Amino acid sequence: MLGEDAAIAAVLATHGLRTCAPPPPEQPPALTDSVDVRRDLLVLDAALGGRPSWKTAVSSRDVDFVELRDDGWAASVSIILALHRTDEEETHMHDETGSGSCDKQPEEAGALAVATQRAMDSARRRLAKRFAHSLDRQQMAAIEQVVNPNPPAVKRKWRQS
After folding, report:
1. Residue range of the domain that includes 107
2. CA distance 55 to 63
3. CB atoms within 10 A of CB 156
4. pTM score > 0.85 for this model?
5. Where would a tag sit more exposed on the chain, N or C end, judged by fewer CB atoms within 10 A?
6. What is the CATH number of the domain that holds 141?
7. Per the domain annotation, does 26 fall within a domain?
């Protein structure tokens, strides 16, 4: 096995490449207090019966690539986020995929962290969209009022496409 690793390292070195650093320990990045995160969590709360009755966990994390470019580190990460019901016993409900990428990061670890956070956001957003269809207009309007209490007075005009 050691000889095989040396052979792989030699091939990578001849092409100017190197192996990826091992992924950081599996723990979800801290949720930010953005409008999108609050909206997604409130949608899941409304659709699934409140925060104590559901939880998410990363069931798979794959680093698509990490590379050093002229302008800094770039990375791409794909994850599978599992949704579980936790009423009386934990029950798996649904898996959703998410992907995230970033570039121009000064450090490799920073690029991986940003790409992982974006992949988590992507998967959470997809879960929230899936369950938002089960809510009626009044529930969605109430969530929007909580998330954005001061909406713009003028509605956006959409161009015809």
Report:
1. 35-146
2. 24
3. 5
4. no
5. C
6. 3.30.390.80
7. no
